[in-house]
Task: structure prediction
Amino acid sequence: MKFQFSVYFLLGIILVACNPISERKQPPPTLEQLATTDLKLDGEQLANAYCASCHLKPDPSILDQKTWVENVLPDMRKRLGLYLEEDFGVDLPEDVGVPKGIYSKVQLIQRDDWQKILQYYQENSPEAPLPQANKKNPKVGIPGFELIQPKYDFVYPNLTTMLRIHPKTGQLWIGNRFRTVFILDPKKGFQRMDSIATSIAPVEIRWNSESEFEFELLTMGLMDPSNDSIGSIVKYTRKGGLWMEEMIMDSLMRPVHFLKLDLNGDNRFEYVISQFGNHLGKLSLNSDSQPEKILSSFPGARRTISRDLDQDGDLDLVVQMTQSRESIRAFINDGKGDFREKTLLEFHPAFGSSDFRLEDMNSDGFDDIILVNGDNADQSQVLKNYHGVRIFLNDGKNNFEESWFYPMHGASGLEVDDFDGDGDLDLFAIAFFPDPKQSPRQDLIYFRQESGGDFSPFVLAKGIDSNWLTITKGDLDLDGDQDVVVGSFEFNDLYKRPQNNWKPFIILKNMKK
Result:
């Protein structure tokens, strides 16, 4: 009987290892099952079986041999609880602040099986990162926009963490890592109107629609990878010339985005908070009237967009998950505040998802997914040919298929709108991790949509030596069209006293009107 069980279990592993996820009829075996079974599999089958237990299996071609062998695979091995002689004298994960449970205390893979996986990746990965596919070379000069870089006469760190344009006043609100929000007046050369001290770095804001003197601010906590829980949502109200604070939510796990919605029809708001975290994190619903509800207990929630996907009259949630479980997921609302999770798109763990939008790109009445992927700050800091800007078209039943891809190293931020006023949607994308050797510089690209769903890329006529971390759109001059603001984040200003006058952003003023 034991022999018969082992044979069937082994056949199940092989089927799981060979079939695409969409065709699987049973869940993959657990790591504990894999570790206690005498597996007669080759390196590829073992890689499929082990990877399928945690995330989408990465193909060897996505990284070069050196990165696999020296960086990524050793970390995966330790997560499986297998330590070798080469690890002696090296800090254990717990010694560098990794929470318990991330790296197994129990060995979940046999040494011989691990060697087969290592050999498989080593033999099937390229010696050097693969080059980008052929693409349209961007034209120099962004048509329809005027480049403006305001000048300031004081020295301050260029560490912009938030950019937002007030929809009624056109004022530009800037968050800085040095715990400050600046309010700038576009009518007076973007000179400072006010500044607000914050406890930690601000990353997102929601204004009271009835009053420009009241808003809620999301502060992230530590920007660097961390498992701390010091993020917060704070309400600010201006009274008698002073900004008064009221704590709404605290002890958040490195949050990066939030929505404020009525999801269950009780005329009370819930906060949908993307608590990105690091090793730990979650996507949560928080409110004053009910206990916290965790929609996802995985780290890496980046952005949530609300839509009525199933057209039943209530709001559903579409979420970008990054980190190891890279995906776009829908949380379908039953109207009472309970949700059914559905995977819309799934990617391998080195994909580097960074930002996304839901917009109708082909004017068929259904929202499509526009996505940039280019996060390159983890264990595989090499140029990746699959980084870039993508459009996934909706077939009308919330099934999405990639229709367009433009390679862009380190793509990290996105805005979508009909910027040129011709009736279709265009794109702006920034890259925080571009290839510095590319010419022209490709860290800020405007994609103007042409007929047939194709796009023409354009870059700045005057290259600006900066690192673009944030991007936003809005009507700065209240003339009816959408301007674009791009924020700089200079690494040198983190580690030494800045030497030059403040240059926190550039403006692309829309000249359509």
